[in-house]
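Q: I have 330 residues here and want to know how they pack in 3D. Can you give me a structure?
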Amino acid sequence: MRPGRGVGATREPSLHQLRLLLVLAEELHFGRAAARVYVTQPAFSQQIRSLEQRLGVELVERGGRAVRLTVAGQALVQDARAVVDAMARLLQAADVHAGTTRGRLRIGSLGAEAAMPYAQAILTRLRGSHADLETEVRNLSFLDMFSKLSTGEVDAAFLRGPLPPGIQSLHLATETRVVCLPADDPLADRDVLTLAQLADRVVVDMPPEVPRSWWDHLTVNPRPDGTRVRYGPVVRDTESMVLAVTQQQAITFLPAAARRLYPRAGLTYVDVPELGVSTAELAWLPENRDKPAVSALREVARQVLHEARTAEPDTADTDVKAPPVPPDPA
C-alpha cells in the first residue's frame, strides 16, 4: 500500500529524516541503524514511516528488523545523498566566509580506527573545544576508504598507510604488525614467526577497488626472496577478514592492536618482525585543508600528538608509539 498524504500534510522531509534513510540504506537493519545514530529502534522506525508519508511512497520492504529498499527507495536514496551533501557543502562554504567552525564534520574510520586511543583522544578534545561543530564518524570499508574521501562523502578520515597520491595526512602513530592465524594452525604456538615460515599460507585478498600497491605493501608481496604471495578469499572489511581466518580459509596481517580490538575464539596473533610497522594517519584532501572544520580537527590532532609525545613512557601502549609532531603539510 502506498503511503498517503492528508490534506494540509507537510510534504518536505527534514534533513534529519534523509540522514536516517541513508543510514538505513547502509545497514539494511532497523536495529543496527538505530544503534548507529543512538536512538531507539521504534523511534527510528517511526521517522522512516513519517518520511514515507511525506514523500507518498514506500521506501523499504519490511521483514522484521531486516529490510530491503524498494525500487523507489533505491532511487530516492541517491537523491537524498545529493541533498544532504549539498547542504553540507553550503554550510562549509558559509563557514569559510564566516571564519568559524560552526557546521558539520564527517570523519571516516577504516574499521575500528576511530576506537584507537589516539583517535578517541582527538575526538573527545574536538567535541569539548568546538561544541558548535557537529561531528559524525562514518565507518569505511576497504572498498570505499579512499573513494569516500576523494568524493567528499567524508571530510577527513582515520586510515592506515600507505596513502595514495593526492591525499595529505598527519601521522598519528606507528605500530608493530602481526599475523592472524587459525588457533589450530601448527605455527600458532610460536612467539615469533618469519615470512619464510608463512610462505605456503594463503592470504586474504582485497576487492579490485582497493589500490593493488596498498595491499601488496601490507602483505609484503613479493616476499624478500622474490616469491609471490598466494591470495585467497576477497574481503570487504576487517570483520570479514577476521572471519575468513576463523573459518580457516586464509591468514592475514594486521596491526598489533588487533589483539585487543578483534579477540576471537579460534584466532591467534603472532609477531612477525619482517612485516615492519603499520602507520596510522589522519587524512584529508589538500583542497579541504583550510576549511574551518578540517582545520580545527588538524589543530586538535596536533595538540593531542604533542601531549602524547611528552607523556611518561610507562603510560604508553607498548605496541603503539606516538611520533614526533611533524611539520603541517603545505
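Q: Anything worth noting?
A: DSSP finds ten helices and twelve strands in the chain. The chain has three domains: 15-78, 104-172+281-315, 174-278.
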